[in-house]
């Protein structure tokens, strides 16, 4: 397989292998099960699993479940399903909580070796003692407790003798360090909470800065890749490993830029707010930037992987044009989605002089070059789209209007003859048209009429009804959170428009949930999971046209 474009992470790995620092590469993807995965996680998944695949190494899925209150088994299940759907198979699936006994054992070792102490300051006091970037911190009054006292207090913390927040275990590092993270970071806090995996076995929980390096070391991870905001935590990561080792291999942390996309929000906390307040139908609402939402919308794993590859891996944060994602989705659909006919807002047309016919219509245009076709029946009544009719057309109008002639895609030419019916608002609902049977298969009408253009249509008799959900970007503004704005106020009410009473050709009647189609001239659509027998529901994946040019 062709080597993908190189980035700084892959350069580091190449150099580690060349210098003999490692002989095998081990990565991990470590989500916290406190929400569904989003497109940012997809970037991290593609990087971690992609690297493992390219170098013949391993990549674990590890649930970073050290915050009992926010975590849930529903999230655990969705995360693994999403990783697998994206096309990756974890080497192992692990839970941080399974390492709690080992982590605790190492905490006692830190205490015994004088590298950690039990501190009685509360959260606010700890913050004040820590100082600021411009002033060194003050040592906690509990910093010099004896090893015996620290061990006794730590064991009593673990035994549940103290309430939440009463005490913490802290690393004894350097209260004057210019790196604030090194000013005696917290290793354990007390939380009398039910954990989704360990129940009430524990009432002390390790902090990220302590847990993460140990999880990596226990699993033999070589390259621990995280996002840029953890840059300053790297010093703590290294300190923990130095004081609990030796570890072979010795994991190293590397930071890359997290993905931000315009027209959306990406933190799980904000996505949870959208779900809880009912602004979307759930984590898998097709407008959500979650993997589950994008899957339901109709994005393919190939499209998401192509997007991850396109944006690459960089060391500086930036916001990516959501048009790039839509571009990748269209590129993929153009190659994979069969073309079919469907009419969102039907006008009935009675055809005069047409002989019922059936043509064999190809699923793909010649430039895609894929095989496949289906029979398309054309009877004496059809539907065309409201958007393809004007009572008073502009001069350059290429569709139907009084007296105008158009070609029906895969069919024949028809000339609009009379308006038969209008609704209360005066919109045309029924037309009569003259058919030109001599134009089946091509050519202009024998009477020399000019053909204005080609329109899509469906047969009235054989087509099936559909509900069509037109999805668009969830937010009105590119940066819904700019300047501290309330992102909920930037929601676009037009991000979902439901069209009832659409009609699609018969071949879609038995289309599978999740299958993707192009309705010619209309857009790309996927069959939604709300579909029931006889009640087809289509999601618009993307429109046909690109706003983004590569
Ligand atoms: P959020 O802020 O959305 O809640 P998180 O970083 O807290 O995300 P985790 O579950 O801890 O979510 O993330 C698991 C992995 O995915 C981490 O290694 C993290 O670096 C990576 N990740 C999360 N968000 C992004 C993003 N926007 N771009 C790239 N990687 C990300
Ligand atoms: Mg996290
Ligand atoms: Mg988070």
Automatic annotation (TrEMBL):
Signal peptide: none annotated. It comes from Sandaracinus amylolyticus. The keyword Nucleotide-binding applies. Coiled coil: none annotated. It catalyses: tRNA(Gln) + L-glutamine + ATP = L-glutaminyl-tRNA(Gln) + AMP + diphosphate. It comes from the Bacteria. Its EC number is 6.1.1.18. The lineage of its organism: Bacteria, Pseudomonadati, Myxococcota, Polyangia, Polyangiales. GO terms for biological process: glutaminyl-tRNA aminoacylation. GO terms for cellular component: cytosol. This is Glutamine--tRNA ligase. Belongs to the class-I aminoacyl-tRNA synthetase family. The keyword Aminoacyl-tRNA synthetase applies. Keywords: Aminoacyl-tRNA synthetase, ATP-binding, Cytoplasm, Ligase, Nucleotide-binding, Protein biosynthesis. One of its GO terms (molecular function) is glutamine-tRNA ligase activity.
């Amino acid at each position: 397989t062709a080597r993908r474009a190189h980035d700084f992470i892959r350069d580091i790995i190449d150099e580690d292998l060349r210098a003999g620092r490692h002989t095998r590469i081990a990565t991990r993807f470590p989500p916290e099960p406190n929400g569904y995965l989003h497109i940012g996680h997809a970037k991290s998944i593609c990087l971690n699993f992609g690297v493992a695949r390219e170098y013949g190494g391993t990549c674990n899925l590890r649930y970073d479940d050290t915050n009992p209150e926010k975590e849930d088994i529903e999230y655990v299940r969705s995360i693994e399903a999403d990783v697998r759907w994206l096309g990756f198979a974890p080497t192992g699936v692990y839970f941080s909580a399974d390492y709690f006994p080992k982590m605790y054992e190492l905490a006692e070792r830190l205490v015994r070796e004088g590298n950690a102490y039990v501190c009685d300051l509360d959260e606010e006091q700890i913050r004040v003692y820590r100082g600021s970037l411009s002033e060194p911190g003050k040592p906690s009054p509990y910093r010099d407790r004896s090893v015996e006292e620290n061990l006794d207090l730590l064991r009593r913390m673990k035994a549940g003798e103290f309430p939440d927040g009463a005490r913490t275990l802290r690393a004894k590092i350097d209260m004057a360090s210019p790196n604030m993270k090194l000013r005696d970071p917290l290793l354990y806090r007390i939380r009398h909470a039910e954990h989704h995996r360990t129940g009430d076995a524990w009432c002390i929980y390790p902090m990220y800065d302590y847990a993460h390096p140990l999880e990596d070391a226990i699993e033999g991870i070589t390259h621990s890749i995280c996002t840029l905001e953890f840059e300053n935590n790297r010093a703590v990561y290294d300190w923990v490993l130095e004081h609990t080792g030796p570890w072979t291999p010795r994991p190293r942390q590397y930071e890359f830029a997290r993905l931000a996309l315009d027209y959306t929000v990406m933190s799980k906390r904000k996505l949870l707010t959208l779900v809880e307040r009912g602004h979307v139908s759930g984590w898998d609402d097709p407008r959500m930037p979650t993997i589950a939402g994008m899957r339901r919308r109709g994005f393919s794993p190939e499209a998401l992987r192509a997007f991850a590859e396109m944006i690459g891996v960089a060391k500086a944060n930036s916001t990516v044009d959501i048009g790039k994602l839509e571009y990748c989705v269209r590129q993929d659909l153009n190659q994979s989605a069969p073309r079919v006919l469907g009419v969102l807002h039907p006008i009935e047309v009675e055809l005069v002089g047409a002989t019922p016919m059936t043509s064999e219509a190809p699923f793909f245009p010649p430039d895609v070059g894929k095989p496949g076709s289906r029979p398309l029946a054309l009877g004496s009544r059809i539907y065309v789209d409201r958007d393809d009719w004007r009572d008073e057309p502009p001069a350059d109008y290429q569709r139907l209007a009084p007296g105008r002639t158009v070609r029906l895609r895969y069919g024949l030419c028809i000339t609009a003859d009379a308006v038969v019916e209008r609704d209360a608002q005066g919109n045309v609902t029924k037309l009569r048209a003259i058919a030109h049977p001599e134009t089946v298969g091509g050519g202009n009408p024998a009477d020399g009429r000019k053909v204005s253009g080609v329109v899509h249509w469906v047969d009235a008799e054989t087509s099936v009804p559909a509900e069509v959900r037109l999805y668009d970007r969830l937010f009105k503004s590119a940066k819904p959170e700019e300047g501290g704005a309330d992102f909920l106020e930037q929601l676009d009410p037009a991000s979902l428009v439901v069209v009832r009473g659409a009609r699609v050709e018969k071949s879609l009647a038995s289309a599978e949930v999740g299958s993707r189609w192009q309705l010619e001239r209309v857009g790309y659509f996927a069959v939604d999971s709300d579909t029931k027998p006889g009640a087809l529901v289509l999601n618009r994946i993307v429109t046909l046209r690109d706003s983004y040019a590569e």
